[in-house]
Write a structure and sequence with these properties.
The complex is a heterodimer.
Chain A lengths: L2 E5 L2 E4 L5 E8 L5 E7 L6 E8 L2 E4 L5 E7 L2 E6 L8 E8 L5 E3 L3 E5 L1
Parallel strand pairs in A: 2-11
Antiparallel strand pairs in A: 1-3, 3-8, 4-5, 4-9, 5-6, 7-8, 9-10, 9-11
Chain B lengths: L3 E4 L2 E5 L4 E7 L6 E7 L6 E7 L4 E4 L2 E6 L4 E6 L8 E8 L6 E3 L3 E6 L1
Parallel strand pairs in B: 2-11
Antiparallel strand pairs in B: 1-3, 3-8, 4-5, 4-9, 6-7, 7-8, 9-10, 9-11
Classes of the chains: A mainly beta, B mainly beta.
Chain lengths: ~110, ~110
C-alpha cells in the first residue's frame, strides 16, 4: 500500500532563516505531488504541484520554491522565511481526477 | 480555471440532527468531487467521493449528491455525533489539469 512521509513534524524557525521540508512517497510510481499550506483555522492553499521529476508548477507567487529531485521525493524550500510563512504544510500525492492522499504535515512557526 | 465555493463556513447542530454542506463549482469539465474531513491538528482524509456519471452516493450516515446541470454538490450527514465535529472540505477536479480545487472548508460542531 502507499504511504507518504513528511519531516520534520514540527519546526520553529527565526525570521530570515532558510527552510527545507521533505516529503517522500512509497508504494507508487510517477505520482502527482502537491504542497499545500494551511494557516490556522483556514483552508488549503495549493502552493506547488509536480507531474514528474524536475517539473514544478507554482500556484501562488511567494518566497517559497519546490523541487522534485526523484520520482517520489518532493522538497519545499525557502531562502529567507517571513512571519507569514507560519502554518501547517501538507504534502499530498494523487493521480488524474482521483483522490489525493495527504501526509501527516509539518507545523511551521516563524518567530 | 476551476473555482469552488463552499457554504456555510461554520455549522453548529445538536447531536442527532442532520448537517448539510453545499459546494458550487465553475468548470463544467470537472468529473470528480471528493469530500475530506480534517480533525484538529491532523491531515485531511477522504470520507466520500462521487463522479459525474452518478447523482448520489451513500455510505452509512454520509451521503453526497451531485447536480451537474446546476454545478453544485452537497454533503449530508444524518444522525450526527460529537465525533463528526471537524472541518469538512469539498473539492472538484480541474478539467484541464486533473488537480483538485478545494473549497475553503466548513467547521462543523456537534453539540451533545
Amino acid at each position: 500500500s502507499q504511504t507518504i512521509h513528511q519531516w520534520p513534524a514540527t519546526l520553529v524557525q527565526p525570521v530570515g532563516s532558510p527552510l527545507s521540508l521533505e516529503c517522500t512517497v512509497e508504494g507508487t510510481s510517477n505520482p502527482n505531488l502537491y504542497w499545500y499550506r494551511q494557516a490556522a483555522g483556514r483552508g488549503l492553499q495549493l502552493l506547488f504541484y509536480s507531474v514528474g521529476i524536475g517539473q514544478i508548477s507554482s500556484e501562488v507567487p511567494q518566497n517559497l520554491s519546490a523541487s522534485r529531485p526523484q520520482d517520489r521525493q518532493f522538497i519545499l524550500s525557502s531562502k529567507k522565511l517571513l512571519l507569514s510563512d507560519s502554518g501547517f504544510y501538507l504534502c499530498a500525492w494523487g493521480g488524474w481526477e482521483t483522490e489525493q492522499f495527504f501526509g501527516p504535515g509539518t507545523r511551521l512557526t516563524v518567530l | 480555471g476551476e473555482n469552488v465555493e463552499q457554504h456555510p463556513s461554520t455549522l453548529s447542530v445538536q447531536e442527532g440532527d442532520s448537517a448539510v454542506i453545499k459546494c458550487t463549482y465553475s468548470d463544467s469539465a470537472s468529473n470528480y468531487f471528493p469530500w475530506y474531513k480534517q480533525e484538529l491538528g491532523k491531515r485531511p482524509q477522504l470520507i466520500i467521493d462521487i463522479r459525474s456519471n452518478v447523482g448520489e452516493k451513500k455510505d452509512q450516515r454520509i451521503a453526497v449528491t451531485l447536480n451537474k446541470t446546476a454545478k453544485h454538490f452537497s454533503l449530508h450527514i444524518t444522525e450526527t455525533q460529537p465525533e463528526d465535529s471537524a472541518v469538512y472540505f469539498c473539492a472538484a477536479s480541474s478539467g484541464s489539469q486533473g488537480n483538485l480545487i478545494f473549497g475553503k472548508g466548513t467547521k462543523l460542531s456537534v453539540k451533545p
